[in-house]
Amino acid sequence: MNILEVTQLEKVYGTGINQVHALKGVTFTVSQGEFIAIVGTSGSGKSTLMNLIGGLDTPTTGSIRIRKHDIAALTRNELTIFRRRNIGFVFQNYSLMPVLNVYDNVALPVTFDKGRHIDHTFIEELLKELGLWEKRRKYPRELSGGQQQRVALARALANKPALLLADEPTGNLDSRTTAEVMGLLRMSAQKFHQTILMVTHNELIAQSCDRIIAIEDGQILGKGGDGLD
Q: FRET pair for 104, CA 20 to 30 Å: which of 9, 27, 177, 226?
């Protein structure tokens, strides 16, 4: 089953001679449970694509369907609720709240979603799986970079999203911690039935994913199984 369908996606910034075509006719699908790497040089359109899929920006033309919902057709309020319930984000800089402890950082997306009860059992399971249960009362400043990235991952999974978007999640980590975080991402994809799209500049990391989507000058170059077509 396709969890994500991107069709003829175009994104244009500016007007007239200042127009920039960030994305041009991007089309691909993602099946539930896939772990996909998105690669490309700086300025190729990777971040633009992730922002559009995440509902943080709107396409000029084309459609993005997540769980059969065309997110461009949603109102601002509908999109906010849909994004909160269906999309998880993991960023390079962790983006944790310094005044909240580990447990409260992880529970934060659920508390934002009014009318939904916090599944404390699930959050406890997440924290234990990610080796954070003993750190649940610690604050971000008391954690290592790898531990903070684990908290960010747990927070992204707290709402049981259909899609997890990871933008250079290992960019600030050393090689050992990078391998650890990649293992945790794959474990979470399998255990919690997540579909992951991950932007990375690391070729070895990309090769470890199920599929690579390469973007250059706003267009897809390859959608291979083990590498580029």
A: 177
Cβ distance 161 to 87 under 8 Å?
yes
Query: Domain ranges in the chain?
Result: 33-55+76-224
Please name the residues in contact with 81: beta carbons below 8 A apart, sequence gap of 6 or more: 113
pTM metric for this prediction: 0.86
Helices (H), 31-174: 46-53, 76-86, 102-112, 120-129, 145-157
Q: At what angle do helices 175-191 and 120-129 cross, to 10 degrees?
A: 140
Instruction: State pLDDT tens for residues 157-167.
Output: 888 888 999 98
Contact 181, 158 (CB under 8 A): no
User: Which pLDDT score, from 0 to 100, does residue 114 have?
Assistant: 57
Decide if domain 33-55+76-224 falls under CATH 3.30.559.30: no
Neighbours of 41 (CB within 10 A): 12
